[in-house]
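Budget justification note: compute hours in this period were largely spent on complex prediction jobs such as the one shown. Inputs:
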Amino acid sequence: MSTDSWLGGAAAVATLTFDVDAESPVLAAGAHYAGHLMTMSHQSYGPDVGVPRILDMLDELGVPATFFVPGWVARHRPGLAASIVERGHEVAHHSYAHRAPTSMSDQEERDDFARAMDVFAAQGIEIQGHRAALWGARWQTPELVAEHGLRYDSSLMADDRPYRIATARGEIAELPVHWSLDDWEQYAFLPEPAIGTVIESPAKVLELWCAELDGMRHYGCLFNLCCHPFLSGRPGRLLALRRLVEHALEYGDVTFLRCRDVAAAALADPALTARALPEPPVYP
Amino acid sequence: MSTDSWLGGAAAVATLTFDVDAESPVLAAGAHYAGHLMTMSHQSYGPDVGVPRILDMLDELGVPATFFVPGWVARHRPGLAASIVERGHEVAHHSYAHRAPTSMSDQEERDDFARAMDVFAAQGIEIQGHRAALWGARWQTPELVAEHGLRYDSSLMADDRPYRIATARGEIAELPVHWSLDDWEQYAFLPEPAIGTVIESPAKVLELWCAELDGMRHYGCLFNLCCHPFLSGRPGRLLALRRLVEHALEYGDVTFLRCRDVAAAALADPALTARALPEPPVYP
Amino acid sequence: MSTDSWLGGAAAVATLTFDVDAESPVLAAGAHYAGHLMTMSHQSYGPDVGVPRILDMLDELGVPATFFVPGWVARHRPGLAASIVERGHEVAHHSYAHRAPTSMSDQEERDDFARAMDVFAAQGIEIQGHRAALWGARWQTPELVAEHGLRYDSSLMADDRPYRIATARGEIAELPVHWSLDDWEQYAFLPEPAIGTVIESPAKVLELWCAELDGMRHYGCLFNLCCHPFLSGRPGRLLALRRLVEHALEYGDVTFLRCRDVAAAALADPALTARALPEPPVYP
Amino acid sequence: MSTDSWLGGAAAVATLTFDVDAESPVLAAGAHYAGHLMTMSHQSYGPDVGVPRILDMLDELGVPATFFVPGWVARHRPGLAASIVERGHEVAHHSYAHRAPTSMSDQEERDDFARAMDVFAAQGIEIQGHRAALWGARWQTPELVAEHGLRYDSSLMADDRPYRIATARGEIAELPVHWSLDDWEQYAFLPEPAIGTVIESPAKVLELWCAELDGMRHYGCLFNLCCHPFLSGRPGRLLALRRLVEHALEYGDVTFLRCRDVAAAALADPALTARALPEPPVYP
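Corresponding output:
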């Protein structure tokens, strides 16, 4: 077992995160999808049905979570972010319009980032962390996170334990994600825009995530799970997610935290040395 | 357990629905596929072999079902719709030519909708509900359903319980569908037009649907299953579907109904408030 | 249990068929792939390693099989077809160059068909049946089969029991295939030409095929399995195929036959009425 | 059980191979991906986190392995190759820039091949074998391997046992690979460049590989497993890989070797006759 202080004696730390994207990923793929009523209803299920159900389940399980909300979603559903914070969970920054930074110019990313900060400020929601839309962070993204006074980002994959990134605007923590701990690749399906292929069963997804949890307990990692309310809020999938949490709690050596609490512990852990952001590789 | 009246005391209500598409989805993708004998034979299996076998199985299980039939299919197989109604099941509207409303102009959708109504009227088939081809409903679709005097639509995904939609032409019930309760994403495969990737085993599909049924019994939902006779009419898959129904019946708290009966109960349930159809979202 | 005479008292009849495509499907997708040594080696594995191993396994199990061989493959591997017939199995026609009839003109299909017949005639291989490349039969294909004096085709999907097709050149039997009984969709993977997505485990494929076998025993069908030596000839997959056959033999009510023997029984069974080939559908 | 001398009395020989690609496959797909920080972090995980963890696991299990490293990766991470050799494992040639030979001209392939040799020579790393990037070998590749004095290639699929290839520049051993023994098709996922579809669970992959191991023990084959540290270095997947090795060791009839040792045994085995490289097939 690792003796790193950020783990606080646990074999692994778990962060349940929910990306409350609503209609934004589909509209970012094509504004004309606003006219597709079925597709819009598929996406609105997330905040309207999935989020309340998830909040109730978290209450029943007694574990905290972090909800990454695009500014556009928070603005068009004014009470949403507050309803999450009131239940003891964290709301964090997930872009304004759910466009990947890699698809934007420097200035577009700056503007999109600030616009989301403005929405949360206007709603009195305190923000400490950021996750790039589509996890599509690029080289300037960590500096932008630091520049806005946030403490962490959660979009990168250079490790499976938290690490610190030194930027020109100060140091932030990185809480790494990974495709294998994302419900999107397992469950998402839409014909237009074309998303997904076969739809996996909750039993398979539970098996996948339990295997990763076991590996992360073995290696002392951050089990940073990313779910989407329009996907994992569905009845059968939510029961599987509940079983995953119950399974982790039964181990007795997994601590569930909000992302901001992991970030604070990581920034205070001298065993996690700061990495300078590498130069982009030169190829070939 | 929910005390909503539409559930009638059950933990969940189940609707077995069969979209009898025959050749129409392939021909809608390209009229030249009419010359592909193998592809046409793959599709004709649905009404010719799958439907009679499904009707026999439903008799043996003693459960009712709803068959969504495109008008073009009903017209070219004149006895098909009547043979379904005679066995005590419901026939409902599934477009005329299996083109998604989102791919048509307002007028084209209107004409296609009316043309199917005409076919069913000429055959003496009473229609109460509608499901959009490819579930591709757009903003005017619910109003069109109400305008023709139908009581329900079954193409949207804003909830996993029935809901009511207020339109300018009156109120209808929505019986929501979902990709995870559709056999198409699990089983469909054709090289031209390119449909599907890997083909799942009936055991996996049974596992997926049983998981969703359990979740829906937990949350008091409508288990609205969509199967296609050319897919689920195959021998091994039909045995899996039979096991699913038997499994649900063994619970003793799942009621199987035709869609029209669920719609009637939903429209009469004061706990299910009517939703005005939202404005299309403005983005960004 | 069905009392149709073609079943000969069995619950289901099984035909093990092997499409010995070798390099032809890849070269039909692009002649420049001839320069891709890895890809060519991937395909040559079929006749060079897979076929001898399959022949040995069939000997050990004591069951007959049918090998569909493109004329191009038979011509470039002169001893191949004879080595199969010598072991008591059937060799059948699988096009000359593994191009789908739907991708050819009438005359091109005629020429390709005849060219394969010439190869087999020159090698003294008697041919009774045909399977279209990529199963891509079109409307004239059955007549072409009859015109060449063959007794059956095995490319269509209008049923899961044999049926008879009346053509202007006489009647043939159809031994229907289906995507779910094909190893291609489960196992095939190549980056160029892009074939397949994820690769399934033999355990999943065994599960899928056993489920279909059970369904077909229930409904009295033809379990017409299509395997490719370059896919199912691999060690782990061949053991799974062996287990499938052993499993079927243990039931005691499944008869393994060559396709020509099923065709003869089907043509002699008055319960299987002849179907006129339908007109291509008019749409919409 | 085979009595071929290359097996050394084992039922099967196993080679654990790791393709340490780091950022190279993504950059070969598009140099602009260098600006995608998330994607670069996803790839750097391989050498930075995966490789050290894999080396520790190999120590614990007491089995040797072979690491195929692109010259570009070795050059930009100067200590990497040496750190692998120091632990008793083999480093082999995996192109310079991870471009498939089939995508290059003759001269480009020659230059790329030599450039990687130069990097390893400068680092004092002795190279005996080669694996083409993307396994994309073409007709001249084996001769190039021989020309540089290497003893084996591991990119082809004409067999599942080692074979010898006679080239104009001498004989080499081929240690064949296969898509079913590659973690890429099971685990790899990236949205840009678009790689992969659904992500499989380690349990499924373990099942797949154990099935192939059983088949290869049955037929006396080379179980030549290809893993990527950025994929199989993840916690849950690495535990599955450990279980695979433990499972193989428990059989007591599987020998784990470095590729160079298998190549030496294959070149010394008179039962493995040399194959002249066939002429590219003429089609149709």
